[in-house]
């Protein structure tokens, strides 16, 4: 098995782990193209080590600088560059390790051209889940999830007939505040919210984990990824993050996927499926685990969970509104403009206020996101006193 890979988000956490996996499996996996943001020092190192044919960076100035240093490599920038990386000659596998919605158009084009999509970008399905599934229906493409929870469900399902599925059970670490009283949320500071008990991640996703917005996005993502009914999705808080998710079947049997928290494992599986490569990852020793705990999430304390199910019921562009307004609210929280509970307040109000439209093509997405972001920013400025 040989895969020629385009990697979007090569300098982020998932991107760097993906390159580590590829480095250890060079006989089967090859980098053809890379896209990143503005980490020039790291992309220089990646170009020298992996010798990609095509590279994209965020700005034109960075593009021009790299073109001078690497005259043989085709180097682009911006949205055009992301598309050039995704559609580079010979690529059969696209790894989307970017955050946000910048890679959706390239993902849809890659689906249309029949590539395997190794998906670590929740926003793709949250924002355009119905559209993505329409593309998949008329293509030979497949999506293999990278997020540990979605990968776990995929692994539990792949050997079993889907008609026997009763429900999927996503797990969540709970973040740092799941045992905190709701009344104390107003006192949560930025530094408090950035201390995740299990994972080391960027600021945005760490805040999303503390609000459980990240898990809400995963609920919406799972709905579209596995073509579920809303009553087939359940959620448990599991602080040890050993069981990554479970699947319950009609005979009441439950299959769980377990392992140490290491993102390289689901990344490798997405690239090797249906095979499994060996690796040097630490092995799970159940005798060293004193207990595995499970708790029901409190939707009153974490309204993000309740909102996720409302988004699924409303469909249309509700997921887009949910994600875009949360992006703006988190940025506002990190600037010290609104309180921690203010994030929930903003997102819920925007779900009520923004008009709902169907996402009919990839061209609809950017204007819709821009409009939601504008309305959210205006709403925050007008209501700062209510969210301090």
Report the CATH architecture of the largest domain. Answer: 3-Layer(aba) Sandwich
Q: In one word, what is the shape?
A: globular
> How would you describe the oligomerization state of the chains in this entry?
single chain
What radius of gyration results from the CA coordinates?
Answer: 21 Å
- The count of helical stretches stands at 16
Assign the CATH class of the largest domain: Alpha Beta
Mean pLDDT: 94
Uncertain spans: none
Neighbour order of strands in the largest sheet? 4-3-2-1-5-6-7
Please indicate the percent range of residues in DSSP E strands (runs of 2 or more): 5-15%
String of helices and strands: EHEHEHEHEHEHEHEHHHEEEHHHHHH
How many strands, which pairing sense, and closed or not: the largest β-sheet? Answer: 7 strands, parallel
Distance between the termini: 55 Å
Question: Percent range for helical residues?
Answer: 40-55%
Count of strand segments: 11
CATH topology of the largest domain: Rossmann fold
């Amino acid at each position: 098995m040989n895969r020629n890979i385009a990697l979007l988000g090569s300098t982020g956490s998932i991107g760097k782990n993906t390159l580590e996996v590829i480095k250890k499996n060079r006989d089967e996996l090859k980098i053809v193209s890379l896209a990143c943001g503005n980490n020039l020092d790291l992309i220089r190192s990646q170009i020298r080590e992996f010798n990609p044919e095509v590279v994209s960076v965020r700005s034109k100035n960075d593009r021009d600088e790299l073109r001078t240093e690497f005259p043989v490599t085709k180097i682009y920038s911006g949205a055009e560059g992301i598309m050039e990386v995704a559609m580079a000659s010979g690529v059969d596998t696209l790894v989307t390790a970017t955050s946000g919605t910048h890679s959706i158009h390239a993902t849809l084009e890659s689906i249309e051209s029949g590539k395997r999509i190794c998906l670590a970008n929740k926003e793709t399905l949250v924002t355009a889940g119905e559209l993505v599934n329409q593309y998949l229906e008329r293509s030979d493409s497949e999506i293999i999830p990278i997020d540990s929870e979605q990968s776990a469900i995929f692994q539990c399902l792949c050997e079993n007939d889907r008609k026997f599925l009763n429900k999927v059970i996503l797990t969540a670490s709970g973040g740092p505040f799941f045992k905190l009283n709701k009344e104390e949320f107003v006192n949560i500071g930025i530094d408090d919210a950035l201390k995740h008990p299990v994972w080391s991640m960027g600021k945005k996703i760490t805040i999303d984990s503390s609000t459980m917005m990240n898990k809400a996005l995963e609920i919406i993502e799972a709905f579209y990824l596995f073509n579920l009914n809303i009553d087939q999705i359940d959620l448990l808080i599991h602080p040890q993050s050993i069981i990554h998710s479970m699947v319950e079947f009609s005979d009441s049997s439950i299959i769980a996927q377990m392992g140490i928290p290491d993102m390289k494992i689901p990344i490798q599986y997405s690239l090797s499926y249906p095979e499994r490569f060996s690796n040097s990852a630490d092995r799970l020793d159940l005798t060293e685990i004193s207990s595995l705990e499970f708790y029901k999430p409190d939707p009153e304390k974490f309204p993000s969970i309740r909102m996720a199910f409302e988004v699924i019921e409303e469909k249309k562009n509700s997921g887009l509104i949910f994600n875009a307004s949360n992006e703006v609210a988190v940025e506002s929280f990190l600037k010290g403009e609104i309180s921690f509970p203010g994030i929930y307040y903003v997102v819920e109000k925007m779900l009520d206020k923004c008009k709902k439209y169907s996402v009919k093509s990839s061209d609809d997405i950017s204007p819709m996101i821009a409009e939601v972001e504008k309305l959210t920013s205006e709403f925050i400025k007008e209501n700062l006193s209510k969210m301090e």
